[in-house]
Each structure stands twice: as structure tokens, then as C-alpha cells.
């Protein structure tokens, strides 16, 4: 079995979850799986869904760290430009240029911080949605098992 149908089902769930809520998205996910696969194929689909979702959760946990992306380099550049601009303001001949450099670095540094916070929030929500998919798939595989919560 290929992972394309699994990714398609996961994407459908995420879009449905954002618009209509967890209950309806879960019902549509399960109905899609039951209509498309029966018997052993359904179990294989749910197992593959669990593995892919676990992979995505681990991947997004790494991406959520701002120290593991280009944002750290951009922020470090903004900080160094701010320090340089601050030092330039101490020189009377270059004070205006230092003020412009310092203000630009502060604006860009703040926008990088906002970008990191927005990315952190979006990925946290996506991880929570993927955990819902994982719960659905594992409950479908083992309906008699007690929930972990």
C-alpha cells in the first residue's frame, strides 16, 4: 500500500477538523476509510496511518524548536546589526545612520520573534490534531482497548 492515500486522508481530516470540528472530522475520516478499504486492507490502512502520523508528530516536534531552523540565524543577524547600530549611535558623525540601523534591526528582530511564535502555535495545533488521528486509527485497530487518557 502506498502512502499517498494515507496522506490524502490525513489532509482531509486536518481540513475538516479546522472547519467543522473533531467529531464530524473523525466520522468522515472513518467513513472514508471504511468505504475505500474492507477487511485486511482496512487494518493495513489504519496501521500505515498510525505509522505516518507518528512520523509527522516526531518531525513537527523537531520543527517546533526555533533553534533548529533558519530563524535563529536571522535573529542572530538582527541582534548583531542592533549592536552595531547601537555602537554607531555613539559616534557623532554616524549617529543618524546608527539610529536607522538600530531601528531596522529592532523591527526585523521583532518580526522574527512573531514568526517563531506563530510557527510554534500552528505546529502545536497540528500536533494535537495528528494525535487525534492517531487515537482514531488505534481505536479502530483495537476497539476493545481502553483509552490512554
Major beta sheet summary = none
Kindly state the mean pLDDT as a whole number?
Answer: 88
| Global outline | rod-shaped
N-to-C span: 31 Å
Compute the CA-based radius of gyration: 23 Å
Order of helices and strands: HHHHH
Low-confidence stretches: none
The helix tally amounts to 5
Helix and strand composition category: mainly alpha
- Strands, count: 0
What portion of residues belong to β-strands?
Answer: under 5%
**How much helix, percentage-wise, in residues?**
over 70%
Q: What would you say this structure looks like, in words?
A:
With 149 residues, the protein is mainly α. The protein has helices at 4-20, 22-36, 40-63, 70-90, 95-141. α1 packs antiparallel against α2.
Task: Present the secondary structure layout.
Layout: H1 4-20, H2 22-36, H3 40-63, H4 70-90, H5 95-141
Helix pairs in contact: 1-2, 1-5, 3-5, 4-5
Task: Write a concise keyword list for the protein shown above.
149 residues; mainly alpha; 5 helices
Task: Characterize this entry briefly.
With 149 residues, this protein is mainly α. It is built from 5 helices and no strands.
Amino acid at each position: 500500500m502506498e502512502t499517498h492515500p494515507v496522506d490524502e486522508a490525513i489532509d482531509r481530516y486536518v481540513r475538516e477538523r479546522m472547519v467543522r470540528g473533531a467529531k464530524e472530522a473523525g466520522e468522515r475520516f472513518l467513513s472514508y476509510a471504511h468505504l475505500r478499504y474492507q477487511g485486511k486492507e482496512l487494518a493495513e490502512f489504519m496501521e500505515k496511518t498510525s505509522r505516518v502520523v507518528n512520523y509527522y508528530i516526531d518531525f513537527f516536534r523537531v520543527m517546533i524548536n526555533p533553534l533548529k531552523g533558519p530563524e535563529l540565524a536571522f535573529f542572530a543577524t538582527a541582534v548583531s546589526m542592533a549592536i552595531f547600530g547601537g555602537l554607531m549611535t555613539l559616534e557623532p558623525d554616524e549617529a543618524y545612520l546608527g539610529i536607522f540601523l538600530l531601528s531596522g534591526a529592532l523591527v526585523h528582530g521583532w518580526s522574527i520573534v512573531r514568526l517563531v511564535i506563530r510557527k510554534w502555535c500552528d505546529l502545536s495545533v497540528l500536533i494535537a490534531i495528528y494525535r487525534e488521528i492517531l487515537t482514531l486509527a488505534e481505536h479502530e485497530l483495537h476497539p476493545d482497548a481502553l483509552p490512554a487518557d
